[in-house]
Amino acid sequence: MEPIESAKRAAVGGMEYFLRNFSHVPDDKLHWTPTPTAKSAIRIAAHTALYAARFARMIRDRRLPATGNLTEWLAQRDAEEKAVTTREEMERAFREGTAEVLAALDTWKPEDLEGSLDSGQGWSMPLTQLIALPGWHATLHAGQIDYLQTCWNDQQVYVG
């Protein structure tokens, strides 16, 4: 399978896998944290969901975000994540962001994958890595949800 189609399938598959895992988080555990400084399941989910649209912009614009003042950018990102407080808000953002990823990838051709993006900070990202980010990111954060489930002693293995 060619890389663009593979990235599209991974984006959808990663989102669906994350949402399936997240569906097993009990309502009374959405805002629970194992320590005062840890992120809750809903905060991890909000982060994961909102990044789908951020990745779509990077793919569409073929550039990394211009953060300017990193501290301010991170504060804005954190505020956006904290504003998502329900499953429905998170899932809507995730599905809309993933649809944006697919639309952005539809504008790419195989020859567009040559090269990399310069971060402006001394490192670069291959374009093949950029288009893989949405699926990889969702799968990565699904593991955090799995971990939280073990913290509240949910040892069930969910396969569907």
Strand-residue fraction? under 5%
Mean pLDDT, all residues = 92
CATH topology: Four Helix Bundle (Hemerythrin (Met), subunit A)
Major beta-sheet overview? 2 strands, antiparallel
Number of helices: 5
Strands, total number: 2
What's the CATH class, please?
Mainly Alpha
Q: State Rg.
A: 16 Å
Question: Would you mind describing this structure in some detail?
Answer:
This protein has helices spanning 3-22, 41-61, 70-83, 87-105, 127-151; strands at 116-118, 124-126. The radius of gyration is 16 Å and the shape is globular. The protein starts with a helix and ends in a 9-residue tail after the last helix. Helix 2 (41-61) crosses helix 3 (70-83). The chain has a two-stranded antiparallel sheet with strand order 1-2. It has 160 residues and is mainly α. It is built from 5 helices and 2 strands. 62% of the residues lie in helices and 4% in strands. It has one domain (3-151): Up-down Bundle (Four Helix Bundle (Hemerythrin (Met), subunit A)).
What is this structure's SSE topology?
Layout: H1 3-22, H2 41-61, H3 70-83, H4 87-105, E1 116-118, E2 124-126, H5 127-151
Antiparallel strand pairs: 1-2
